[in-house]
Design brief:
eight-stranded mixed beta sheet
Length: about 170
């Protein structure tokens, strides 16, 4: 009888363990990411510790990726120097890290033409809902796979500089 109870208990624990989902929150204990560099033309993102490349990712960009983002809805990904300035663990795109676009120059340029510079530019994973996934599908953001985003989210801290090159 004791054997049967123990077996039933162990079988139940094993079944529950198999149902547990893997957490999207990972830990990172390596060298600090001191800069993020995105080369839009090559569709690559690098996480750097000073001059050493820690990770390289293939990325997808805004639906009109060439040129610097100028206005809301233009589908472009910004170019220039910004900061990672916020985190969204409940993003519609499987985690996201905010980029400090627009800066003062971006705002002034758009305002001079009577337009909005837009905003809410992020590094993020894939959509949580079913969606089309073709190259350069975002509204101006930088996208990686969900698994990659889990690592990126763990590695990059708020305040990390990001350089977005043409």
């Amino acid at each position: 009888m004791i054997f049967t109870r123990r077996f039933a208990l162990l079988a139940g624990v094993a079944a529950l363990a198999g149902c547990a989902q893997k957490s999207k929150f990972r830990s990172y204990y390596g060298p600090e990411v001191t800069r993020v560099v995105v080369n839009k033309g090559e569709r690559e993102m690098f996480l750097l510790h000073h001059r050493k490349v820690l990770k390289r990712y293939k990325v997808e960009l805004g639906f009109a990726p060439e040129g610097h983002k100028q206005f809301e809805g233009d589908g472009r990904t910004p170019e220039g120097e910004y900061l990672i300035d916020r985190r969204n663990p409940d993003s519609s795109f499987h985690l996201s890290l905010g980029i400090s676009y627009p800066n003062e120059a971006d705002i002034a340029f758009a305002k001079a033409l009577g337009k909005s510079p837009g905003g809410d530019i992020f590094i993020h994973g894939e959509p949580n809902a079913l969606a089309f996934l073709s190259p350069d599908w975002t509204a101006g953001c930088i996208s990686v796979t969900n698994r990659e985003m889990e690592d990126v989210y763990a590695m990059i801290l708020n305040g990390t500089p990001i350089t977005l090159n043409a």
